[in-house]
Amino acid sequence: MEQKLKTDFDKFISMSNFSNQEIKLKKEALHNFLKNGFPGRKLENWKFSDINQIIQKNIGELTFYNDYNIKNEINDEIFIKEIEHNKIVIVNGKVERLSFEYEESDKINLTTVDNFNQNPNDDNSLLSLNNSFSNKINNILVKKNYSFKKPLIIYQITNEKVSNTNINFQLKFELEENSSIKIINLYYDNSEKNFINNLFNFNLGKNAILKNYKIDKRSNTNIKYDYSSITQKENSISETFIFSSGSDFKKNEVSCNLEGQYSSAFINGIHLLSKNKHHEIRTNTNHLYENTKSYQLIKSVIDDTSKSVYQGKIYVDSKAQKTDGYQLSKAVLLNEEAEFNAKPELEIYADDVKCSHGSASGSLDEDSIFYLMSRGLDKKTAKELLINGFLLDVVEKITDEEIKKLLKNMIGLN
Amino acid sequence: MRDKQIEDLKDYKYGFSTDIESFKAPKGLNEEVIRFISNIKKEPDWLLQWRLKAFERLKVLKEPDWQKPKYPKIDYQDLYYYSAPKSFKEKPKNLEDLDPKLLETYKKLGIPLQEQKRLNGIAVDAVFDSVSVATTFKDTLTEKGIIFCSISEAIQKHPDLVRKYLGSVIPITDHFFATLNSAVFTDGSFVYIPPNVKCPMELSTYFRINASDTGQFERTLIIADKGSYVSYLEGCTAPMRDENQLHAANVELIALDDAEIKYSTVQNWYPGDKDGKGGIYNFVTKRGLCKGKNSKISWTQVETGSAITWKYPSCILKGDNSIGEFYSIAITNNHQKADTGTKMIHLGKNTKSKIISKGISAGKSDMTYRGLVDISKNASNSTNYTQCDSLLMGNKCGAHTVPYIKNKNSNSNIAHEATTSKISEDQLHYCQQRGLNQEEAVGLIVNGFCKEVLQQLPMEFAVEAQKLVGISLEGSVG
Q1: What is the separation of C-alpha A244 from the centre of its chain, rounded to a whole number of angstroms?
Q2: Taking CB atoms and an 8 Å limit, are B397 and A349 in contact across chains?
Q3: Residues of A in contact with B390 (CB under 8 A)
Q4: Could you give the maximum distance between any two Cα atoms of chain A, in Å?
Q5: B241 at interface of A, judged by CB pairs closer than 8 A
Q6: Three-state secondary structure of A118-170
Q7: ipTM of this predicted complex?
Q8: Most buried residue, A150, A230, B9, B133, by CB count within 10 Å?
């Protein structure tokens, strides 16, 4: 694999026009990745999802070279019609369209950043891989006191032109003081057997609000890793909602650093899995300052031989007194072959805190099924109704009414 | 190289043959030392081979390093693996020779004077005849057919039982410290309860003569045959000092059909001084196997001592309808560190497990609950309930919860809850208003916090443990 990586990297560099500085950083990142390789079960974070093995088993040999010079057609039919929205369209890891037609153009600053930063202590090799092979990184800056009028939908499309390929994509958002944005990530895959590695960076200034909804519904055989890193200043709010269902393998990782007081982070997620899908959500909330708050609710419905994993960690620094952290994960196993693994973790160094977590997994409650059946429902409908209610609990947490309605329709929960 | 070998041989020569008085094996871990231990204990050949096999395996094993509390590297070649009990000559003669702090603690715990002497190996006078007390108990046990003796004795007298069960729960192919123990264990307890016998008393190392000198590699084996019941107590509330820093004991429990084993531990080893110097490393492997149907194993532990406590008493629920329980209080103060919890491995149908863990950290200490609940495919209708609560005192200590939950069976339920909090000002205020001083108030609140676990302990133990909880936290408030 090492040789392949090197030749693909050289080819990639020669076909793109990066500055010397960028090339230098990319080389360093590649070096980092070569040192560690794909993460496997030996690493604590990947204990339940050995992505190295999964890639080998599902894809086999990967191509790392991805041609960003090809112009891709965009099929307008896939766009959401129910609501007016701004668009970023990404095809096979390349940004094909950036349109902020509903916004005041002088309030948004679009740039490409040539410098990405990875914490040198961060041993996440997939970030290094992303850094070495991703195209120019778009940076979207929302200026002070500006709130997006319409949601932004990021369409992440893959088409049949790519297969057995590793696609790396990165996007950055900066929210200045008092600004706000609502983002929906829609994954629309028409490709087979690729490894897609996405990285999102959010920087929230004072009083900024970020609402991020990630929807992966369409069934596909790709393997995905999706990492969101959110840094929050005083009084800022971040809300992340994850609906994870379509891909064969998907790991969603959300990392929140609550750096300012009164900042809060909410992460809610749904796993709706069947066949032999294997999905994981990992949340990492770091309370680094006084009076911060975080809340996580993750629910899984697991059928057939699928596998759901939740790893959640609440870290409370010794400075972060008066932290309020809560975490709940629940899973319903519908089939004997299904599997649920969880690792809810608390790491606490301050005493004046209120932190708790809960995790429960099991089958659907027989009494509830019986109750519904005694009222005339057949077993299948009764079960569906219960699952519906179980998951709706998470969807109801969405704070934006318009988007909530849209997503309910999209997911098929009412 | 050659010179070194000759040097080693010299060591060997003097170490093994001449120094009869102290019976010490030379420093270092090698085949010769293992042969020496086996030889001096007159062990049968199968056991020697078993030890050697463990040693072979040990050579390829690496010391684990995933735990939270880190410790300086241990040089295993710099340890003595066998030394016979000390003669009274080397031990303190009077209570006055002891550390006054230790005496103060004894007083608070209300330990009788004679008992204090016994704990420190001071020759006891004729009035207090612990030997005869123990003998009376022995008679009662023999009458019922219960075997309760040191494991060395059991190897001589009941080789079939030992051979059948030794290593059946913790095999020699286990992790580093367990395998190390298998290779070099020196002594420990052996209990066998015959079918349908209810052990009439709490068995305790206390009643076994010479129990305090089993050394750092203790091995305990408890077998409860069909339909039997036993409650076993390990350790005591009185502070224990020991010059061996590393303690890597192995405890194996086997419960056959309808049998029940209750294993309680109170551990109060030397935790090091206020600055975190010294103290014992307690790296114990404890594992129980519910082998038969309807069997039950229950672990209760109160961990207040040791510089580092790193242990996970586990239950393997193999028999259908078997039950595993784990109740734990772990208290860390000053620079103590603990990484403890349990593993519940559900293999049989209708198996149940319950975990109640209470962690209290104060001072500059660090406390981690780490647990695994694993419900396998075949363990239908199994349930687990886990509750782990942590209490923090001050912002220089840490409390962590790391549960691993694996559910592979759709008919099984797992529920897990964890909370972290501190003693609220209101509670303290209320107690102080009623005339308690601050320390008493904290002691009272903490005891309430631990109540669920304390009440699992046998009566006489529970009273002492309750006091111990209070004492362990002294100086942590204010």
Answers
A1: 9
A2: yes
A3: 346, 348
A4: 72
A5: no
A6: CCCCCCCHHHHHHHHHCCCEEEEEECCCCECCCCEEEEEEECCCCECEEEEEE
A7: 0.83
A8: A230
Which residue's structure tokens are 């560190």?
B337
Domain ranges for chain A, please list them: 2-260, 365-414
The SS3 assignment for A252 reads strand
Q: Report the residue of chain B nearest A366, measured CA to CA.
A: B411
Helices (H), B14-76: 31-40, 45-60
Q: What is the pLDDT of residue B4?
A: 54
Give pLDDT tens digits for A80-117: 999 999 999 999 988 999 999 999 989 999 988 866 66
Contact call for residues A261 and A233 (beta carbons, < 8 A): no
C-alpha separations of A10 from A66, A85, A165 in Å: 12, 39, 16
A307 vs A338: CA distance, rounded Å? 6
Q: Look up residue A152 and give its two tokens.
A: 């932004």
Chain Cα centroid distance, residue B60? 26
- Alpha-carbon distance A401 to A391, whole Å? 17
CB-nearest to B410 from A334, A344, A345 is A334
3-state DSSP helix/strand/coil % of chain A, to nearest 5: 25, 45, 35
Q: Looking at this protein, which amino acid is placed at residue A67?
A: D
Q: Is A129 on the interface with B (CB under 8 A)?
A: no
Q: Where are the beta strands (DSSP E) in A205-277?
A: 209-216, 220-232, 237-244, 247-258, 264-273
Query: Touching check for A339 and chain B: CB below 8 Å?
Result: yes
User: Which residue reads 């052996």 in tokens?
Assistant: B190
Mean pLDDT of B89-95: 54
Distance CA A292, CA A320 (A): 7
Distance CA A117, CA A109 (A): 20
Are A348 and B421 in contact, with CB atoms under 8 Å apart? Answer: no
Half-sphere exposure of B223 (CA within 13 A, CB side): 23
Q: Which residues of A touch B413 (CB under 8 A)?
A: 360-363
Q: Please check whether residue A227 touches B, CB under 8 A.
A: no
Percent of chain B residues past pLDDT 70, beyond the cut? 78
- Do B410 and A363 lie within an 8 Å CB cutoff? yes
Dihedral (CA of B53, B59, B62, B63) sign:
positive
pLDDT at residue number B47: 92
- Nearest CB to A350 within list B395, B402, B407: B395
CA distance B409 to chain A (A): 6
The domain segmentation of chain B, as residue ranges, is: 2-85, 100-423
